[in-house]
Write a structure and sequence with these properties.
eight-stranded mixed beta sheet, 36% helix, alpha/beta, seven-stranded mixed beta sheet, 14 helices
Length: 444
């Protein structure tokens, strides 16, 4: 699709919404792992262009490509059958002949990526962009050895990552390419899984993000819907529950361990979805599954910097008559009374507790949730948070005035009351022309 075919206003709005993410990702270190299948066929162009976009926006990129289909192809040409351990590892058993195929396949993948990343013709999205790709022996490996009675021969595991060498390359502005081949101090070469190399590199660099492009994403819930976010504890529970295919289980286990090992966030993306990298990184909700050590969304006390976000939520409700108009000057005065739900840097819900201590009561005011985020319990979470604050103030009663949400509050234990039930000072401010319903609830 040509830019001229896009709706101009939609493009402008998307670009404006992407700006905070562009700023947030600049100078960050991302490790991107993808299987050998991703560099075959027409999809490689989209992947390369998206990686080039990230590099041009100042992201420090480490690429870890796999080479399984390329290895399998070479084995078949030699009339050899691939061998995989059926025990706990599920890894390839790499004998001498297979190791030759591994070396050849990894060399082909590396050369193909280097060539594509060097493209700069005028008709390419990479026009004018000069990307330097750096690779080398930054992985020290050791043999997997005998597991479950199976000698894995030249199949290895990561022993050490030369993080300092990688950092120097990233500091020089290079895109680092780390192949799944490691060398032992005795000079032997070992076949490694790209997944384990990506995790080891991410942990060694304390990467901000480890991104897996895989056919096992996004994860699905019991109803088949996409799982967008998991904490490490939730990921562990999914692993313990079973039911995952072997490859998906190993990937989730690796993501779980990477989070515990110091990687900021792990993203699992569908490698077949065009533009998955950009959609995940430059939109609020993304398209994959995120595993992060801390909750993706948090409740906190508002500050002055949150005023634009709060105004963006409450102004449409004021215009519709659902909320009474609140001048920005008053909002600035009362900002410490507001709580906000922040999602990836954006305010998606807000509410305020206005104490009336002389009457032993607190008012819930300005409860608002972004229309795109309603129905997921955010308003309930805000009310619980405001109730905790009221309890901390030593208050024993909550009240709310509403024109549209009477039944919502009644379902949460609030009871209808007459305006005379309001604190005297607040009652003097009651606007009878609005006809707001008054609801009250005792705080246990």
């Amino acid at each position: 699709m040509r830019l001229a075919d896009l709706d101009p206003q939609q493009f402008v709005e998307w670009f404006r919404h992407a700006a905070p993410y562009i700023n947030a990702h600049r100078g960050r270190t991302f490790v991107v792992a993808f299987p050998g299948a991703a560099v075959e066929g027409p999809r490689i162009d989209g992947l390369i262009h998206d990686l080039a976009v990230l590099a041009s926006l100042g992201v420090r990129l480490v690429l870890v490509p796999g080479a399984r289909p390329q290895v399998e192809q070479r084995l078949r040409r030699r009339g050899l059958e691939p061998r995989y351990a059926q025990g706990s590892t599920g890894l390839r058993v790499t004998d001498g002949d297979a190791l030759e195929c591994v070396r050849d396949a990894i060399g082909e993948v590396r050369t193909r990526l280097e060539a594509r990343l060097s493209t700069g013709v005028a008709t390419s999205p990479m026009a004018g962009l000069r990307l330097r790709v750096a690779s080398g022996n930054v992985i020290t490996a050791r043999p997997v050895g005998v597991r479950d009675g199976i000698d894995h021969l030249y199949t290895g595991e990561v022993r050490r990552v030369d993080a300092e060498a990688l950092r120097r390359r990233l500091d020089d502005g290079d895109v680092a390419l780390v192949s799944p081949l490691g060398y032992s101090p005795t000079g032997e070469a070992f076949n490694l899984s790209a997944e384990s190399v990506a995790r080891a590199v991410g942990e060694a660099l304390a990467a901000d993000k480890l991104i897996h492009l895989t056919r096992h994403a996004p994860l699905r819930d019991a109803d088949g819907g996409p799982v967008r976010e998991l904490t490490p504890r939730e990921a562990r529970a999914r692993l313990d529950a079973g039911g995952l295919a072997d490859d998906a289980r190993r990937l989730l286990h690796s993501a779980h361990q990477a989070c515990l090992g110091g990687v900021g966030r792990v993203h699992l993306l569908d490698r077949t979805q065009d533009g998955a990298l950009l959609l995940e990184l430059f939109t609020r909700d993304g398209v994959g599954t995120l595993i992060a050590p801390e909750p993706f969304e948090s409740l906190r006390t508002a500050g002055l910097d949150d005023i634009p976000g709060i105004l963006g939520l409450i102004r449409p409700l004021e215009e519709s008559g659902a909320l009474v108009y609140r001048p920005q000057e008053l909002l600035e005065e009362q900002i410490s009374a507001f709580t906000v739900a922040e999602r990836d840097g954006a305010v998606v819900a807000t509410g305020a507790l206005l104490p009336w201590p002389a009457e032993d009561a607190g008012e819930i005011a300005c409860l608002a949730v972004d229309p795109d985020y309603r129905g997921a319990g955010r308003a309930d979470a805000l009310v619980r948070r405001l109730e905790q604050q009221a309890r901390g103030h030593g208050l024993h009663r909550l009240f709310v005035l509403t024109t549209r949400a009477e039944h919502w509050f009644r379902e949460r234990g609030f009871e209808p009351a007459a305006p005379e039930a309001l604190p005297a000072t607040r009652r003097a401010l009651y606007d009878r022309t609005r006809g707001s319903k008054v609801l009250v609830r005792d705080i246990p």
